[in-house]
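ok new one. same drill as before - structure tokens go in, u give me an amino acid for every spot. 135 of them this time. try not to just spam alanines like last time pls lmao
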């Protein structure tokens, strides 16, 4: 949470439809959320390290991370975030289609704060996002 009470969320998701849906659901239910959408693991690193086009960006207070990303896979990105002293304190929530138990265990082994499997049912997905927002 920032000093102005705005939660800066970095949403790292390569599926534009899913990314827009997540942002719309969260934006519609809160006035104190600002979401930045990034569609690539390498761009996400540039954002976090404030490189090039992202040099004036705000440090996120929460990261929503898909596991299957172009550029740098979300699994690798999670490991990098959680070993870097600048970012390891930022909560990371994996939000993915993967129900693979290995992905779940590996994510928690690398200190993810929560693991949410995206539902293909819109109503359930919307409900999951509301539970997440309240969390």
């Amino acid at each position: 949470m920032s000093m102005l009470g705005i939660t800066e969320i970095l949403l790292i998701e390569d599926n534009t439809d899913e990314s827009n849906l997540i942002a719309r659901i969260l934006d519609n239910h809160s006035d104190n959320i600002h979401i930045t959408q990034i569609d690539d693991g390498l761009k996400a690193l540039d954002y976090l390290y404030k490189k090039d086009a992202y040099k004036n960006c705000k440090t996120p207070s929460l990261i929503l991370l898909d596991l299957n990303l172009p550029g740098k896979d979300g699994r690798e990105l999670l490991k990098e975030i959680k070993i870097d002293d600048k970012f390891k304190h930022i909560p990371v929530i994996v939000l993915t289609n993967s129900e693979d138990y290995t992905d779940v265990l590996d994510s928690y082994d690398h200190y993810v704060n929560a693991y949410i499997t995206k539902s293909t049912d819109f109503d359930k997905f919307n409900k999951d996002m509301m539970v997440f927002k309240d969390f």
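Helices lie at 16-28, 41-48, 74-83, 101-109, 122-134. and btw DSSP finds five helices and five strands in the chain.
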